[in-house]
Amino acid sequence: MTLKKTFDYSLTVLLAFTLIMMAYLISGLMKPFTGDAAIISAFGTDTFSSVLVSVFSIMITLGLLLVFGTLLAYKMHKKKGAIYKVAHGLIMLPLLLPPTVAGLVLLQGYGSNSLISKLVFGGDLNVAFQFGGIVLTQVFITMPYYYQMTVNGFNQIDDAYIEAAKVAGADSFVLLKDIMIPMCKNNIMAGTFLCGLRGLSEFGATIMFAGNMVGKTQTMTTRIYQLYQMDVEAAFLLAGFQLLVFTLPFTLFIQKHQEQI
């Protein structure tokens, strides 16, 4: 057997092993349950409240990302100076933070005892352990994903289009609205979709900064954590349902936008 064939065979074995292990791990969520109590716990009123909180918070988060993330990407695209490199690093910093550390960072920065709270709000800043804390956490965690995908799209635009628009009299706003956003709509859609899934699945930073109060700051993910402490079967049932809800649209989406992901 030649070296090339051996290498190709090894890659096939590696791929098969990876797929088998992923299927094995995911199948663990599909364990059978023993009674109706698990269904009642998994899909009761508290779970419905957590779904509403998750949906409303992620809608606000995505709206903020579309506005501020797009503007940041427009400002930063094709910038190579030292200052812009530092700025890029700071925007991407949340990717490096473990979830619990990100929660502590948010508490330190926006808690009632934070510097901003004392200097600007007289100690009355009330974001932590509130609904707004969920949104702030989701924006903080997902912004790097959306920003990077959007700025990559902007960087891929041929400079000839930009120069032609400027010659025709387009200002920065028109250039962004009528040229760059339409040409990068696939990147923007992919970034928005992935950030939506990432925000809905966020746990560590959310529970540290926003808490886990039923009907107020409890999301679907933190609801699973609560159920795991009370009813393991219900936790597995809800986790399997969440995986199913995420998997179907993600599978359909990735087939169409694989190049942007």
Structure description:
The structure is a single chain. With 261 residues, the protein is an all-alpha fold. The chain has 13 helices and no strands. It has helices at residues 3-27, 36-42, 45-76, 82-92, 99-110, 115-120, 131-155, 159-167, 172-183, 185-201, 204-209, 220-230, 232-257.
Descriptive tags:
261 residues, 0% strand, mainly alpha, single chain
What's the arrangement of secondary structure elements?
Elements: H1 3-27, H2 36-42, H3 45-76, H4 82-92, H5 99-110, H6 115-120, H7 131-155, H8 159-167, H9 172-183, H10 185-201, H11 204-209, H12 220-230, H13 232-257
Helix pairs in contact: 2-13, 3-7, 3-10, 3-12, 7-10, 10-13, 12-13
Largest sheet descriptor: none
Question: What would you report as the Rg, rounded to the nearest angstrom?
Answer: 22 Å
- Helical content class: over 70%
How many helical stretches? Answer: 13
Uncertain runs are none
Strand content: under 5%
Decide which structural class fits the backbone. Answer: mainly alpha
- Give the tally of β-strands: 0
General shape: globular
Distance between the termini: 36 Å
